[in-house]
Amino acid sequence: MTDSKSLTLSYADNDDKKLANQIIVACDLMERIYDEGYYPKLRVYRSWSTHNPVIEGEFAKPEVYRWYLTRELAKLLHANAEITISASRKCISLNDPKLLHAIDEDNWDFTKKKLFLFRAERIDLSLDRLEHYTGTPAHDFQRYIMFTNYDMHIGAFLNRFPDCVKPKRKVQMPAYHHKLDNNMGLTLINIGVGPSNAKTITDHIAVLRPDAMIMVGHCGGLRNHQEIGDFVLASGYMRSDGVLDKSMPKNVPIIPNNLLNFHLQKVLEEENLTYRTGTVYTIDNRNWEFMIKRVVHEIHTSRSIAIDMESATVATNGFRYRIPNATLLCVSDKPLHGKPKLGQSAQSFYQISKDRHLEIVIKAIDLSKNRFPGGLPNASIRAMDEPLMGGGP
Predict the structure, then answer these.
(1) 3-state SS class at 26
(2) Residue 304's closest CA among 217, 229, 235?
(3) Domains held by the chain: number
(4) Crossing angle, helix 343-371 and helix 258-270, to 10 degrees?
(5) Measuring CA to CA, which residue among 250, 217, 248 is closest to residue 234?
(6) pLDDT digit string (tens) for 243-273?
(7) pTM of the predicted model as reported, rounded to 2 decimal places
(8) Could you tell me which of 364, 243, 379, 224 has the C-alpha nearest to residue 311?
(9) Taking phi first (over 0 means left), then psi (-120 to 50 degrees means alpha), and beta for anything else, what does residue 275 get?
(10) Are 260 and 214 in contact (CB under 8 A)?
């Protein structure tokens, strides 16, 4: 039954066409509720659950991630859940001092059964911040996100997708979107240099529930037999950046998504490219060579094969927010072997490597999309008692 502010959905007739129409009506209602100044609320009744039969959650800006809500509502209804949508409380203005208390993650239990990882207020703020940082509206973001810190990768992306959505002004972390139906396209963001930027952008990207995040960067090679231009496929991370230590204990193992790595490795093998898999050491100090004894000791202890400033941060926030992630780096220098990154040689290397590097990642994403059109499995980064709408099967 339905009125202007509420709707109940079920899958009683086992009719997929009716189900699809119900979900369209439900998403339209959520968007209308939000446009009228209220948070839309979902109440899910799950008859099969002994301890948590009813789960509720509020949302903000539902039109931005409509693809995600459509997918997750379909899963719930196919499992014979009953879903009620209604208007909840009035939206809190982003200028209201009460907002700070509502978005405080220290008082938000991520593992408690709920519909979404984030409060409605946090969604509102993060989507506004995304547009501020990237220069593009949040609804342009696609399900597959790539991060770089080089304009050259942006140039390669623009050459491949000249009609992509571009920032309309100069911003801190410009984003470019190759848009496809159902948000199945690609987004590339130049996040700049350093772990703080990597944390900032992934904090806000997380509310979109993307299917994958991949770091496409450069690194210092740490092994004798690496050469400039070789690739590094991260299998783990040494977290020496310190940015997320208070949010995620350092003794929690952080590893990339196995399926993303499988697809990246498959492309590297097919292209007959030289690469190594191993630990990437991420640091917060670009001039780490000035304290080399301390850093080299940690490099040896961790058996790291490459050093950079963003990869572990992206991966840790991916783990923290349950987003499949991976890292593919290209060796641009070998600072421990008399080959530091110098201006002229670096620019020459960048021009040679940029197109190939991006092409590998795009091919791997295409393999993932074809194999898992409904999103990569993410059970490995979900706890025992996790949010119902978690971004994957």
Answers:
(1) helix
(2) 235
(3) 2
(4) 120
(5) 217
(6) 999 999 999 999 999 999 999 999 999 999 9
(7) 0.91
(8) 243
(9) beta
(10) yes
